[in-house]
Amino acid sequence: MGARCSKFSLCFLPCQLKFKSNLNDSSDTENGSGNEDWFPGFSEFSLDQLRAATSGFSSENIVSEHGEKAPNVVYKGKLDDDQWIAVKRFNRSAWPDARQFMEEARAVGQLRSERLANLIGCCCEGDERLLVAEFMPNETLSKHLFHWDTQPMKWAMRLRVALYLAQALEYCSGRGRALYHDLNAYRVLFDKYGSPRLSCFGLMKNSRDGKSYSTNLAFTPPEYLRTGRVTPESVVYSFGTLLLDLLSGKHIPPSHALDLIRGKNISMLMDSCLEGHFSNDDGTELVRLASRCLQYEPRDRPNAKSLVTALAPLQKETDVPSHILMGIPQGNGPPKEIPLSPLGEACSRLDLTAIHEILETTGYKDDEGVANELSFQMWTNQIQETLNAKKRADSAFRAKDYVTAIDSYTKFIDGGTMISPTAFARRCLCYLMNDMTQEALGDAMQAQVIHPEWPTAFYLQAAALKSLGMENDAQETLKDGTCLEARRNRD
């Protein structure tokens, strides 16, 4: 993968440290803190040292998701002793108080655990504020869970990720660092041995007052929206969203997931790639734990210790090293980035004319195999009227009469006698043509619900998100569509 494709590819492993290749065979404490003498102490680096390590903060060494446009850029670097590091360079206005920055960095730098990608130093010169952490060579949870190339993450590995993260949170909580900012799949990193680690960067306050919770509002703990404060219970809520990621293989809003759970429609929540590879009891238990973490009232959520207690008995294949479960050969380089398809490219550019041309050419062939009720119903006047609405809609779509198309597709969809993801896709584009971006996003998401493995649904979501100014989410959704399309082409 190119240097700019992974938001926080920071997994760190200093060459001189003596780590064991299989954490499960170790005699570590239960929360994974291990022998703290194995880790380097905390150091203060000079700006010249870090400039040299990163080749002058070269754009070629950027590993944060959005490159030089990100407010806080992360670089890969190499020290004089050949130790690989990750260097986070903050926006100049993020830490105006140098003393506060140093106090925070030193406090986080006192933590040492095999479950963390540990903070090993910092730099504070003039207006510059930089953090230095161990470098993790095997990408992020987002990459392995949402954008995998050769194989989906195995159930046993997903359970291990959940446990190791819970152990990391328990360790931090027990040492007075219970707050973690914006816990998400980019903050989970994989080390040399394929084992998951929690990035230390989220333990630092990430704003002037330390109250910022920089995440998509759909995934933000409800109490933060009410009070603007991050609490230990907020972190547990975010852990619940990660459990949803592990269950579904997708980044779905908690509200949607909870609707599925309450409706006892758990099968729609589970990753189809896992079918037949886990027991229903284990799946039910993980769903139950996620539901507890996502309770609206913070007091109703479990604490970090309870998470560890609940997850430990679920562990499978504990004797198998992480890199085997992950399918990561030792010393393997990063996979190549998958190029965008013509539709993905058009959606990334918001080229609505090109999107229309591709959808018109594709027609309804992707509706094949999608279950619909038409063949099970008698031919009635209502069905005929619904099909006539579809014909009118398709004719208007072909003629680029998008207002008429919206009206006719709506009548077809509301008729309810035939399920068509393509109809939602076409109406989505019509909405985009009329600057109705929220409606467009809703249709693209509905197309995904009907046809979960359909790349077109993800590409159109990306176009709608881009129209709404949600660039980060748009890029991630584009990657989802690209991976699905690559998988479809292989099959």
TrEMBL record:
<keyword id="KW-1070">Brassinosteroid signaling pathway</keyword>
<dbReference type="InterPro" id="IPR058209">
    <property type="entry name" value="TPR_BSK1_C"/>
</dbReference>
<keyword id="KW-0723">Serine/threonine-protein kinase</keyword>
<dbReference type="Pfam" id="PF25575">
    <property type="entry name" value="TPR_BSK1_C"/>
</dbReference>
<dbReference type="GO" id="GO:0005886">
    <property type="term" value="C:plasma membrane"/>
</dbReference>
<protein>
    <recommendedName>
        <fullName>non-specific serine/threonine protein kinase</fullName>
        <ecNumber>2.7.11.1</ecNumber>
    </recommendedName>
</protein>
<comment type="similarity">
    <text>Belongs to the protein kinase superfamily. Ser/Thr protein kinase family.</text>
</comment>
<keyword id="KW-0067">ATP-binding</keyword>
<dbReference type="InterPro" id="IPR011990">
    <property type="entry name" value="TPR-like_helical_dom_sf"/>
</dbReference>
<dbReference type="Pfam" id="PF07714">
    <property type="entry name" value="PK_Tyr_Ser-Thr"/>
</dbReference>
<dbReference type="InterPro" id="IPR045845">
    <property type="entry name" value="BSK"/>
</dbReference>
<keyword id="KW-0418">Kinase</keyword>
<dbReference type="GO" id="GO:0009742">
    <property type="term" value="P:brassinosteroid mediated signaling pathway"/>
</dbReference>
<keyword id="KW-0449">Lipoprotein</keyword>
<dbReference type="GO" id="GO:0004674">
    <property type="term" value="F:protein serine/threonine kinase activity"/>
</dbReference>
<keyword id="KW-0547">Nucleotide-binding</keyword>
<keyword id="KW-0519">Myristate</keyword>
<keyword id="KW-0472">Membrane</keyword>
<feature type="domain" description="Protein kinase">
    <location>
        <begin position="60"/>
        <end position="326"/>
    </location>
</feature>
<dbReference type="InterPro" id="IPR000719">
    <property type="entry name" value="Prot_kinase_dom"/>
</dbReference>
<dbReference type="GO" id="GO:0005524">
    <property type="term" value="F:ATP binding"/>
</dbReference>
<keyword id="KW-1003">Cell membrane</keyword>
<dbReference type="InterPro" id="IPR011009">
    <property type="entry name" value="Kinase-like_dom_sf"/>
</dbReference>
<dbReference type="InterPro" id="IPR001245">
    <property type="entry name" value="Ser-Thr/Tyr_kinase_cat_dom"/>
</dbReference>
<keyword id="KW-0808">Transferase</keyword>
